[in-house]
Amino acid sequence: MATGVLTNAKVWYDGAEFSPFMFATENEYGVEAIDDTTMGTAGTRSFAAGLKFHRFSDAGYFEAGGTPDIDSTAFTALGAGNTVRTYSRDGGAQGEFAYLTRALVSRYSPFDNGVVGEMHKFTFQGANQGDPLFRGPIIHNAAVTATGSGSEVSHVAVASGETLAGTLHVVSVTGSGTIDVVVESDTTGFASPTTQLTFSQLAAVGGGYQTSTTATTDTFWRTTHTISGFTSVTYIVAIGIL
Q1: Helices (H), the chain
Q2: Per-residue pLDDT tens for 130-157?
Q3: Helix, strand or coil, per DSSP, at residue 25
């Protein structure tokens, strides 16, 4: 992917897409530098790699009562833990790389530096809650109207000792019903697919997060979905391997 101006980043939290209301996002991924300097060091301190961390901060224009209801989503998520978050750089189309994790939302400011005559802004911040930050492709981002499978996306295999993670965001449903989403792997063509991740069933907009440590040599990935009752569902799935 070439360099580019940031104009259409996508940010999903559970069953809400925040990006249509946002004008800025900050995503930090780092490792603690732990001082391990010992006697006899010749004038320069030494540091060892400690624990990794991920922090994020999103800013946008306040919205309450809309679809999605940004204020309600942010207010409810504060301190609740395990909020599913996926961030993608430009458009969020299938095959685009994303960053995904579960996070603790630690700060929500519904009146961010409120000044009369200016736009009503909000900020939404948090950090990882024991789950790593994964990086990998979006393997589905579309509306579906019936039970079926998405198209395949090429990605790396899961080696022994690695973890596969997936995030699910059901952002829109029509009617009443349920949807079950799984992630499958295979060789190209999916003649004999293997289920790698099974998300919990959803009966409304919402999010899901699953991990697996099962190794595979498969390098093609897709989603399948089973719909009952709904006439249309829009969902996003991203996967990462670490």
Answers
A1: 70-77
A2: 999 999 999 999 999 999 999 999 999 9
A3: strand
